[in-house]
Amino acid sequence: MVLFFVSPNVLAIDKVFPGNAKDVDIIIKSSISDDDDTICKSLVQTQGYACEEHKVTAKDGYILSVQRIPVGRSGKTASKPPVLLQHGLLVDAAAWLLNTPDESLGFILADNGFDVWLANTRGTKYSRGHTSLSSNDSAYWEWSWDELVQYDLSALVQYVQYKTGQKLHYVGHSLGTLIALAAFSEQGKLINMFKSAALLSPIAHLNQIPSQLTKEAAQLHIAEELYSLGYRQFPPGWDVLGPILEKICNEPGTNCSELMTALTGPNCCINSSRAGELLKHEPQPTATKNIIHLSQMIRTGTIAMYDYGSEDENKEHYGQSDPPAYNMKNIPKELPLFLGYGGQDMLADANDVKALLNDLKDHDNGELVEVYSEEYAHADFVLGVNASKVVYDPMISFFDIHSS
């Protein structure tokens, strides 16, 4: 039974979902927070933008924080469709707002007339709520990116469409691209709620990942070891993580002298003076099980649901001995896709992205746009001071073409 905690009138749902309101499978509750410790108050309103704080409760009980920037600096009401921005791993929505307004995608989209919505994945600072669990409970952290596909993305997309009455554009970075691609491959009812999707540093195939640090961590089953020791939240404390990093960094061929470079690649275009601001907000927690799932993808080269490690457990969860695959070739050919990727990216490796593009080779003519930057690494797509010119301007043109 679907519960609606909504004002003013539940009957307004029919304007968005004609016919039967039961098609909405989220618990809807919006709020504008008076708390001073919010993304709106700390990062958006300080730059002169209006901002709303919303809460969305997914079907499995996780309460997600969402920020809305409904107008640009001009104060003019958004004239273009909503855009949902989904961050990557170990960060939150702050990543879209840390540069100046002329350099940060959240602000740039608002100033270009879009209705901007910023998602925060479960477990991050502002999305720690749950209808029955505390984030101190180990059960709270029993999820991987499968649940982000099945519950978080579903709830967020339906909520934005419910609140705006419009189909939406989507922007994902890193893990935010993987959950979208997985959802698109399933071709459920969500697919009809998107106008288009922009995928920055797209993560799908991971078996050619060049980050030696990340690869070693996966091959050594570090996340599995942490999970077996009872660490359900990642990263654990430095007392636990420090010796692990030392162990990995002592492996032949692994250079950890520049940790961010070792993980993401040599980012060309990040303003070093913003590093302190970045560290105020990141890293954000995720589930250790989520790291295990990504490690499985690196080791196997497959894009599949979480592998429980035994035929019996997989059969219990999936009715088959192997976890079901997400088939990228199933993504609808008519869905407009914009892919931005970089030659220095050590997580979304260009060769892995080309494997994804090969999966999409039958896409309708003109509905798949690529932007490649040889100098860009993983974080440049979100924090690069010139990303507006390199990536965002062509992306906004792409959105404009598909906004009717």
TrEMBL record:
Gene3D superfamilies from the UniProt entry: alpha/beta hydrolase
The Partial AB-hydrolase lipase domain, residue ranges: 42-99
Active site per the UniProt annotation: S174, D345, H378
UniProt-recorded Gene Ontology molecular function terms: lipase activity
Family indicated by similarity: Belongs to the AB hydrolase superfamily. Lipase family.
Keyword set, alphabetical order: Hydrolase, Lipid degradation, Lipid metabolism
Pfam families xref list: Abhydro_lipase (PF04083)
Keyword field contains Glycoprotein: no
The encoding gene: LOC107910982
GO process terms (BP): lipid catabolic process; lipid metabolic process
Superkingdom of origin: Eukaryota
Entry-linked PANTHER family: LYSOSOMAL ACID LIPASE-RELATED
Protein name: Lipase
Key word Lipid biosynthesis present: no
